[in-house]
Amino acid sequence: MSVKIDTRPIWVLLGLKALRPLFFVTLAASFLYILGMTTPEGLTPEGQKAIAVFAVCLVLWVTNVIPLAITSILAIVLVPFLGVLSTRETYALFGNEAVFFILGAFILAGAVMGSGLSTRIALYMLSRFGSSPKKLVLAIFLLSAALSFFMSEHAVAAMLFPIVLEISKSLGIRPGRSNYGKLLFLALAWGCVIGGIATFLGGARVPLAVGILNEMTGQTIGFLDYAVAVFPLVVILLILGFIILMRSFPMDIQGVEGAAEALGKKLKALGKVRYTEYAVGVVMLATVLAWMFLGRRLGLSSIALTSVVFLFVLKLVRWKDIEEYVNWGIILMYGGAIILGSSLHKSGAAEWMVNGMVGSWATSPWSVILVFSLLALFLTEGMSNAAVIAVLLPASIAIADKLALDPALVTFAIAVPAGLAFMFPMSTPANALAASSNYISMRDMMRAGVIVNVLAWVLFNLVAAFWWPLIGMGY
Amino acid sequence: MGKYIDKPASLKIDLMLRGIRIEDPVVQAWACGSSGIDILLPRDTLVNIPCREVFTRNSPYTIRRSGEDYFITDGKGEVPVKLVPKPAFCGGSTSTGVPFRDIAASHGSYTVVTPSKRCDFFNRSIECRYCAGNFNVAGGPDRVYTVDEVIETVGAVLKEKASGIIYLSIGFSPGDDGGIEFLKPYITAVKKNFNCLVAVEALPPRENRWIDETYAIGADSVLYNLEIFDKELFEIICPGRAALIGRKRYMEALGYAAKIFPNGTVASHLIVGLEPPGSTCMGIDCLTDMGVVPVLPIYRPSSEKDLRIEPLTTEIILPVYKHLYKAIKKKKVNLNWVRDLSMVTTPAEIKDLVDDSKGGLMDSFYKSRLGMKTAWGLSSLRRKLRVVDKDPEHEH
Asked: Is residue B135's pLDDT more than 50?
């Protein structure tokens, strides 16, 4: 038992205790108020209900008053309960590819950790970069980003997650308390997020956006065109992101040398590389290669789950051991977020919000870019990247058409910021994995993430204003 | 009229100092071989009066019986009193055959429960010199009563409503925790099974986190008994406490506990009669400054013990008790928790010696059963608000 006695005056403590019930009463009243309002013009009753659920979940996700997964369960319950989507449709959405991709990633990460491979890699990295804590953070940050240029940022996060976890454990830093622990996991998440926008390979959202663009206008965006257009943004974000990271969480360890002796002993104790490590390493390597070269054709989740099956066929892991690595809370959270995003999209609530909130502002090409990039950046924090694109892109292309703006530009304005989610665990699997480590709280992620989010939006618009014209993408 | 007989508080002190002669055979049978007899003086002042020690032979006090009524007389005056019956639970025993009286003893508003009679000071020959085995604490590998046995005993005490406060006591044991690790399962079990207040008498732990834990696991009140305030006398009379804990640590622990526990629930004994009254008064000031309630038991010399000291007189001691009341009032220390004890004159009882006023509405309320339940409820609520689990719990 480890306790602390709060010696603040009793009336302060009583007041704080009363806040929770007051919060829930207020939230319930707000929810009922939105539901009871006269349905605005252009919005369906289902859309109104979806917005009410979205508002409640957004508040609960932001405040973390109840566990994130439970908020998602609330969304899963409320959506069919209010008739936004049918029960069958709602629960079917839980079978989304992203959910199974995350499940596969957890199991793969568990196998890597359980086999001792991640321990070995972590120990090697520590001994390689052990001279400076700052260099270690930078290495994780750049490694995550560079790998995300070529493969899904989700996969990179899943692959590096156990290694970073092992490094943290080797350094003996305390989950939730140590700034250095926060640095390590945010470096992983942010590296993946920033690297993930660099190419088509970073995630499913850009191919999805280009697909919608092509479907609606017949236009397309080339692999290289895209990479060139976002290249300066990626470079500047990497530099400034690292600076913000280091400033947001001042390092609270003097060095990683202290762990060197213990790490050396541990490395020695591991002995030579065992069959299991080789085998898990090979499966992991094959998975990564498949993600890189077959990801789009076979699907990331199918590849991940196939690898999981192989792990069991080869008897490299046992279900009992794997169970402890599967964070069902994160899986529930992500599933709920997908259901919520789909309910907003399918009920027409998202489109109504875009038209109602943005339609009057987006009156010139630059304002369209400015407003839609902001909206994408905002929505991606609470919805899946793909959902943001599905929700925003059709409406924005319609607006661009009205203003004789190149639809490819608005596609960029939504697809790129839709990948720049730094604030919340539910925004992207990289953040979700980082948060699942328990080394970083949602509050920490939000505190530092909001700065990078604002910066990313400003930088994106600066790149759009000054870089794009130079490469023939002016507006 | 006698000198002290008209004031229950001063009479209590004088009776405790001088004892009483019991000549009436009915009263002798009532006392039943105990070293002290529990009597209820006017104003519901409970006192345990020595009646078997040598010094009581010269006492001016006797008990007179007149039909069903009893009076204490000093030869010049008398006051009506009531004999306090021995609690019925004393005749019972646990399912394992241990007499309840071996585990618990009622002393008015509280019942002392001693799960283990072991005190390691005895094994090291550094026991406190005055130790007359008030709580039957001794050295050696004595029987440790199980949690179930203690719970059965406490259940019997509370069922009979013999006391409202369960006072768990432990002697010195090696370790940093002051004995709280040993008492933890007992405190937890008592709190889990009964709605009663729990006081803990232990030794000051080496680290304050144990005091936090003492409060967190359910103790409503804590006593770290310094016993002697004078530094030199402390070292002579309490060699074990001085050598293994130290006077400084007593002060630190008491000061810290006073910040953690509710006002008036942290107490420390200062034995009257083993140091000069001026020193006791300094101790009273020092403790009340920290928000600690000084409890002043009077030393009862016993012929079997090696510590010989002539008992002080009531004339000398009374000002000390008055000083105690004034200091407590001045420092605004709540005196409603330490009250109605038969073995000790409490600050609440001294009140009528100083301002001659009767107890107010709040006094009566705290003495009532509803008052006890309210105190328990408020104490539980306070703990719920104050105790924070430090173990990080991140849920996603």
From this structure: no
